[in-house]
Amino acid sequence: MTGEQIIFLVVALFTLGSGLMVVTTGNLVHAAFWLVSTLFGVAVVFALLNASFLAVVQVVVYIGAIAILFIFAVMLTRKDMRDQGPQMNPGWWFGALISVLVFLGLFFLLQGWSGLSTTASAMPSGFDAISELGNVLVSPDAYVLPFEVASVLLVAALIGAVYVAFNRK
Amino acid sequence: MVPLSWYLIFAALLFSIGMFGVLSRRNAVAILLGIELMLNSVIINLAAFWRYGDVTQMAGQVFAIIVFAVAAAEVAVGLALVISVYRRRNTVIADDINMMKW
Lengths: 169, 102
Description:
- The complex is a heterodimer of chains A (169) and B (102).
- Chain A is 71% helix and 0% strand.
- Chain A is mostly helical and 169 residues long.
- Chain A folds into two domains: 1-82, Four Helix Bundle (Hemerythrin (Met), subunit A) (Up-down Bundle); 131-169.
- In chain A, α1 (3-24) packs antiparallel against α2 (28-48).
- Chain A starts with a helix and ends with a helix.
- Chain B has three helices and no strands.
- Chain B has helices at residues 4-24, 28-52, 59-89.
- Chains A and B meet through α1, α2, α3, α4 and α5 of A and α1, α2 and α3 of B.
């Protein structure tokens, strides 16, 4: 067990435990706060993967924007802060069964793949992943078109969200 | 060094947890929380394949960023719909929202 493996296991257990709390806790405001801690664990996983830009974006966009939006939505859609009644469907065990089956299916699919035990090569010296990422995002030879399509999608979605949630009274 | 399989199994577990939330929660906002967990596990996979493949090819990180944008768009539209439904029907329980037109 190297230090990196121990860090990964601790972070993974923290993230999965928080994720389980997100889907099982009865109080939705608490679920939104557990989502914040799950997203933070995923940000640490990005840092372990040397994807520093993704780690920062995870904290800024997911925790800073999406999780706060969830907390607002939870508070805007109730009169009483407490949740009454069961929070699970009557057939929740069926959902649990399907989830376990999906995980087992993915697990056995991965077992049959030869590249599974690949270890990462060291980052090339002098290679700056962030500036390379910036270059390919605006380079016509690389990913400028998906990047622009994503920005158009984001604008359209936000205008649509304002239109849908607008109070016409 | 952590082998690739650990990241993939971690992402598969997170995906299954999110899927459980989507399938068994009653509240529409909680269903969207489950979808966020599923999208996050996809981004972990993209970042892991970028790191364990050729790191000079940035495709994994670029598409991870696009998934971020799609997730932001999805949650904005989804929560706007939930708030709009709550205004009209006074409920966010997915089972109670069963009328095609109001």
